[in-house]
Design brief:
Blueprint: H1 10-26, E1 35-38, H2 59-82, E2 91-94, H3 108-115, H4 117-127, E3 132-133, E4 135-137, H5 145-148, H6 153-163, H7 172-182, E5 194-196
Parallel strand pairs: 1-2, 2-3, 4-5
Length: about 200
């Protein structure tokens, strides 16, 4: 099933989950959602401090960035559990980036959202014990539309390629293979962790 909606909108979230619940019930598969992957790239790219007051990050922009890129996963998870759409053994992945532990100009709000999952991961793991709560941390950067929105992205790409032992950027396939591996049986004890998928790039600074 495909839904082209605003994933951070509460009403749209309810509409999607109602349709998913009906679809699974019709197939006789209640609780059949086994993986939730959260990867929303939408936030304000503005500096915290600037000589021009019009350029600085506003309160509404800060709150919007954290709500979309971080808080929304909590709400999706709450609804999946409340509706019994995800049963024991379900796996939850929250995508972050090296922006969570690096300082880049204009990236403050997004960086705060990325770093948000370190404490939240552990708290949510104890709050929802039947679920295997994982946090996948793809530290490597790869070329995608969201990256191109960041001022100075060309320098980021060059720096990432220079630091990476493989002299290349992380690809979507690299991340997908890691997620697929962690979805297999026998990985249930790997939970509440930040896992780097970057070919060792983050280890080199």
């Amino acid at each position: 099933m495909f839904f082209n909606v605003n994933a951070a909108d509460a009403e749209k979230r309810q509409e999607v989950l109602e349709q998913v619940a009906k679809h699974l019930a019709d197939r006789g598969e209640p609780g059949a959602v086994t993986v939730l992957l959260h990867s929303l790239a939408f936030g304000a790219l503005r500096p915290y401090i600037s000589d021009d007051p019009k350029e600085v990050l506003s309160q509404s922009q800060m709150e919007m960035t954290l709500d979309v890129m971080a808080h929304s996963l909590v709400y999706w998870t709450q609804e999946l559990v409340r509706r019994n759409l995800m049963g024991p053994g379900g796996k939850i992945f929250a995508m972050t980036s090296s922006g969570g532990n690096h300082v880049w100009p204009t990236y403050g709000a997004v960086s705060a959202a990325k770093a948000h999952w370190r404490p939240t991961s552990g708290s949510s793991r104890t709050s929802w014990p039947p679920q295997d709560h994982r946090q996948l941390h793809p530290c490597g950067r790869h070329r995608h539309p969201a990256l191109r929105k960041i001022p100075g992205n060309d320098r980021m790409i060059e720096g990432a390629q220079a630091r990476n032992p493989h002299r290349r950027l992380t690809t979507p396939a690299d991340v997908a293979e890691a997620i697929a591996t962690l979805c297999q049986q026998g990985t249930h004890w790997v939970t509440g962790n930040v896992i780097g998928v970057d070919g060792g790039e983050d280890l080199t600074g």
